[in-house]
Specification:
The chain is an alpha/beta fold and about 280 residues long. Helices cover about 45% and strands about 15% of the residues.
Amino acid sequence: MINKNIVKVLLKRKPGANKGDYGHVFIIAGSLGMTGAAYLASQAALLTGSGLVTLGIPKSLNIILAKKLVEVMTKPLPETKEKSFSLNAFSEIDKFVKLRKPNVLAIGPGLSQNKNTQVLARKVVSEIELPMVIDADGLNTLKSPVRMTYGTVITPHPGEMARLLGADVAEVQANRKNIAKNTASKYNVVVVLKGHKTIVAGPEGQFYINNTGNPGMASAGCGDVLTGMIASLVGQGIEPFEAAKCGVYLHGLAGDIAVKETCQASLRATDLLDNIHKAILLA
């Protein structure tokens, strides 16, 4: 079961609260052709309760996201000629973190496989001192789950986990529980191994198998929504394993609510966004 106290925190806020009380999430996401991933992660963070969300985006794509994400702050960053993040963006990211002091950093959705961008992502993961949620192309830049600081959540699907560990996808799928637990313990991270009955494993032996969600969620963008949701919960001060556990549960529940109004074949990531509040109310 998820921690009901977390849900109570999401449902009721102090009368004198201000936006700074509910966490500032910094998301580094997006590239040419993949602005949707940046949108979905950012919007999910807001809808899960974050007081502030800032999206770092390649500068020429800023106008797209600034128009679409009216409640999210955007930070245009140096880009490559292919309109993905440039390594030159690191100094600005570092300055932003030191000046604005966000509570958590999420990196990966829609970053692209550009080699210069991959170098940037590795540098961010290894040098920025913040709790992190690492997903998608953020994981694809790593040779192993190298971030050893507790407070890091990695969210691989089976293919990404196989690549991280130098294993076969079939091997990962046949040993999901043990691989998630062993990886979390060995690398001191929280592992969210996505798929049917997503597994959440913590570095101290914590373990959770999720029972919400449905096959309609195996579609583009649903993982980006999960990244934003988990980052939001971490940014609100929830311990990383519990944040991942609750995020996975609410994400799947939003999908289960949404599929009743559509069908599995038509379920979209934006349907999850539209139902996050209902999942919180129902949890």
